[in-house]
UniProtKB/TrEMBL annotation:
Family of this protein: Belongs to the folylpolyglutamate synthase family.
Gene Ontology molecular function terms on file: ATP binding; metal ion binding; tetrahydrofolylpolyglutamate synthase activity
Entry cofactors: a monovalent cation
Residue ranges constituting the Mur ligase central domain according to the UniProt record: 66-230
Residues bound to ATP: R312, D334
Entry-linked Gene3D superfamilies: Mur-like, catalytic domain
Signal peptide limits: none
Protein name per the record: Folylpolyglutamate synthase
Highest taxon above the source species: Eukaryota
Length: 525
């Protein structure tokens, strides 16, 4: 396989690492908050499509395009799972990834295999390298990934391509699509204001930039300000915009959604509407599923209840400790990073740890299956034991473009209202070295990390605690010793400090922490 012209092949660099190096070279130094990023030469995307000869195939793809502030990845994941269960050959493009960039490209529900990934990667990369220069520069990181997704889905001849917008809508790289089959707008809220605008209306306007003339669209119930803008944009383009109701849990035949958390019923309701419309518009629908309010087709139920997405309300028992003492150390992972999602995430975490504690008491071998029960059904005495014997620790990473003054109080208050108080809060920088960590090795500590932002977060957290009456969480610590400068090391530190086991290779991590996971919470009993 060609390594392109990067010529850096060393004997110890695997072909995959070589591709990752080439990909990293596309990460621009310029900060995302830079205003000139907004729609920065969107027209270039059409040059790239020509270079890659993708125009024709994109126009024939049967696309579902999804924008929104929160719930894009979840909605797309439900949508994919439903259509796959209906027998279609699916392609799914989501962002961000947690550990491996291939998570962003799923074929029939599974990450694209390394071999195919490398083949398509170099096919695109080499062609772009050959045909770009001063006039047309190489595409930036996300643009390249979006182009790669189109290449993969075209070459693999998927029946349906489900595309999650990366940022915004109007100027997103996925918005080169001219004729999607149906569009979806998930919950709107405040995020990326530095690029998308400060009001909900402005944000909605950007997201509605994916609407296309006459192509039907669905959204979830939205605040008035946002809805008005969506409706205005829709009517300009003769888009029939409908509000999809949250999924009625009773339609699942007693099963649970594959993704946890109450907000997922919103996303699932939207996914059902998108799939029904896609089936209808592509001539695959004998029955109009949309009209059915009393039952769902079995394939839909199958898809909704088996859908899976990493790092979203995900519960991961620590794999080193698990075999010796099940349930002793459990990570609860979520990628919430907007005020609204901090709150749903805090609620999910608070309820999940109580459910899990109850199960630990009643089921001997629980940890890999997390069935939720309502919090009301948890006995009070169990609550008390749970509170005494478990510790909740927050591991938080927040990009400096986000406002922790908005995020942290929401998180703390929502947890506190469920009786959950963090014993420690660790604010970690967004460095991580997952894929380079050897089996028993600590990452090397030769890089100096500036922790001033983490110190700011710590101060804010402390102020919040002091302002909170009746809180027993006085000893928030910040781990800021120089040798604990990345998330892996913090995890290692915590494991060791709790006298569980020695530090070993990380079980959870990601290369670009900032975008991928910004909340880890775990307890130890
Ligand atoms: N409908 C929703 N309303 C509020 N918060 C949500 C909703 N759906 C998901 N979330 C929260 O946002 C997190 C991210 O969910 P998801 O990956 O589906 O969204 P996304 O729009 O793809 O986000 P990202 O900006 O990370 O790409 C979830 O873990 C959850 O905390
Ligand atoms: Mg986002
Ligand atoms: Mg996403």
């Amino acid at each position: 396989m060609s390594g392109g012209d990067n010529g850096s092949s060393k004997l110890d660099v695997s072909p995959y690492d070589e591709a990752m190096e080439a990909l990293s070279s596309l990460i621009t130094k310029r900060s995302r908050a830079d205003k000139s990023n907004k729609g920065d030469r969107f027209d270039l995307l059409f040059d790239y499509l020509k270079i890659l000869e993708l125009d024709e195939s994109i126009s024939q793809m049967k696309i579902i395009h999804v924008a929104g502030t929160k719930g894009k990845g979840s909605t797309c994941t439900f949508t994919e799972a439903i259509l796959r269960n209906c027998g279609f050959h699916t392609g799914l493009f989501t962002s961000p990834h947690l550990i491996d960039v291939r998570e962003r490209f799923r074929l029939d529900g599974a990450n694209i295999c390394e071999e195919k990934f490398l083949a398509y990667f170099w096919w695109c990369y080499d062609r772009l390298k050959e045909n770009t220069g001063d006039e047309i520069p190489m595409p930036t990181y996300f643009r390249f990934l979006a182009l790669l997704a189109f290449k993969i889905f075209a070459a693999e001849q998927v029946d349906v391509a489900i595309l999650e917008v990366g940022l915004g809508g109007k100027f997103d790289a996925t918005n080169v699509v001219q004729t999607p089959v149906v569009c979806g707008i998930t919950s709107l809220g405040y995020d990326h204001m530095e690029i998308l605008g400060n009001t909900l209306g402005e944000i909605a306007g950007e997201k509605a930039g994916i609407f296309k003339l006459g192509v039907p669209a669905f959204t979830v119930p939205q605040p008035d300000e946002a809805m008005r803008v969506l409706e205005a944009k829709a009517s300009q383009l003769h888009v029939h915009l409908q509000v999809a109701a949250p999924l009625d849990a009773n339609l699942l035949n007693g099963l649970h959604l594959g993704l946890d958390g109450e907000h997922q019923y919103l996303n699932a309701g939207l996914a059902v509407a998108l799939c029904s419309t896609w089936l209808q518009r592509t001539g695959h629908l004998e029955v109009n599923y949309l009209q059915q309010t009393t039952s769902l087709p079995q394939q839909f139920i199958e898809g909704l209840t088996t859908a899976a997405l990493q790092g979203r309300a995900q519960v991961v028992p620590d794999r080193y400790i698990e075999s010796e003492s099940p349930g002793n150390l459990v990570f609860y992972l979520d990628g919430a990073h907007s005020p609204e999602s901090m709150e749903v995430c805090a609620k999910w975490f608070s309820l999940a740890i109580k459910d899990d504690y109850q199960q630990l008491n009643t089921v001997s071998n629980l940890v890999h299956e997390h069935k939720r029960v309502s919090v009301e059904s948890v006995q009070m005495d169990q609550h008390e034991t749970f509170k005494k014997n478990s510790t909740q620790i927050l591991l938080f990473n927040c990009m400096s473009v986000r406002d922790p003054q908005l995020l942290l109080p929401r998180l703390m208050n929502a947890c506190a209202s469920h009786g959950v108080h963090f014993k420690k809060a660790l604010f970690v920088p967004n460095t991580s070295v997952y894929y380079k960590v050897g089996s028993n090795a600590l990452p090397s500590s030769d890089t100096q990390v500036d922790l001033s932002w983490q110190l700011t977060l710590q101060r804010l957290w402390e102020n919040l605690i002091h302002g909170q009456k009746g809180s027993n969480t006085k000893n928030t610590d910040l781990i800021c010793e120089e040798d604990i400068n990345c998330t892996e090391k913090v995890l290692g530190f915590v494991r060791t400090a709790r006298c569980f086991l020695h530090f070993r290779q990380l079980s959870i991590g990601s290369e670009r922490m900032s975008e991928n996971i910004n909340l880890f919470a775990f307890r130890s009993l």
